[in-house]
Amino acid sequence: MPSLATLGNDLYAGRRQLDVIGRRRTWFTVAVVLMVASVLLVAVRGINLGIEFRGGSQFTVSGATTQDQQLAEDVIAELGEGEPPRVSAVGSGALRVQTAELTDEETQQVQQGLADAYGVPVTDVAATYVGPSWGQSVTAKALQGLVIFLVLVSVVMTLYFRTWTMAVGALGALVHDLVVTVGVYAAVGFEVTPASVIGLLTILGYSLYDTVVVFDKVRENNADLFTQHRRTYAEGANLAVNQTLVRSINTSVTGLLPVASILFVGAFLLGAGTLRDIALALFVGMLLSTYSSVFLATPLEVALRERSEKVRRHTRQVLDRRARRRAAAEAEQDGPVDLAARTDDLGVAVVAGQHLGVTAQPKRRKKGRR
What we know:
Largest sheet: 4 strands, antiparallel
Strand order of the largest sheet: 3-4-2-5
CATH architecture of the largest domain: Up-down Bundle
Order of helices and strands: HHEHEHEEHEHHEHHHHH
Structural class: alpha+beta
Distance between the termini: 64 Å
Radius of gyration: 29 Å
CATH class of the largest domain: Mainly Alpha
Mean pLDDT: 79
Number of helices: 12
Low-confidence stretches: 339-361
Strand content: 5-15%
């Protein structure tokens, strides 16, 4: 089995090819299924919003002798029917109890009950109230920032790559990453807090960075597209995906390892909700962005670019020329030709150390006599 370095060299040189662009309908189908499933999960199960968004009362018990969550649930149950509390451990000696909005009398009753249940003074039970207006303000600002970010990304990428197709491909990948990440939250029931929102906005930059790297290679491979007839636009884009594949994997692994460590420490060792919330969004988003930059953004850009008549005409010319060369080679050898061994017919990159001679030189038009 070849090493990752050998595989990367083969993919970069074109000696091996993963047909990512050719199977783009498969990736589009997978993306649509994931996004529809995410929307259905959000519609059916809903999102587990934190107290910052829904409002309510929060109690923090410090120095508790035990972290039995059932004790807190029993204390809240004594108030009568209502929304069940959300109890979570904070560190090794504290608990956080979140309930619906309580009156001042009910707040004092819960404080005393929690103090008695966990064997701490009443002063060690902190009570706070969070209004839903603060969460609504955070949500509005986040959506406003998201819209501004997407608009600026569209303008900058259109100007940088000199084509709107790459901007649309990048935005399609961004929307996919956001929708599926929210669907994961709805599926597993993780609480959505302001830290989660920060994590969701952070993955936008990561997804965009990975996509721009691939698009840069696509532009480089197809810089002289219409002056050559060795490969089509789709083949040049597919080569770019293969050339950046190992780099994308290495970057993702390097980024996911520390995020996974933060997620493990925050969720299991320290019980720190903020670390867990932001790390979960980053972990899921980084995985999705790595997938979407390779299997969604570039295939989507190629599908849009191939709608151009100029690109379609060039593709037909390349395929017709290739078919004629195949027929001539078969007639010469009196049998089928193995095109897999002919890099000039596959339209892949020039292998390092291989010289194509005069065939690599651009064709020059003859000047007419005056």
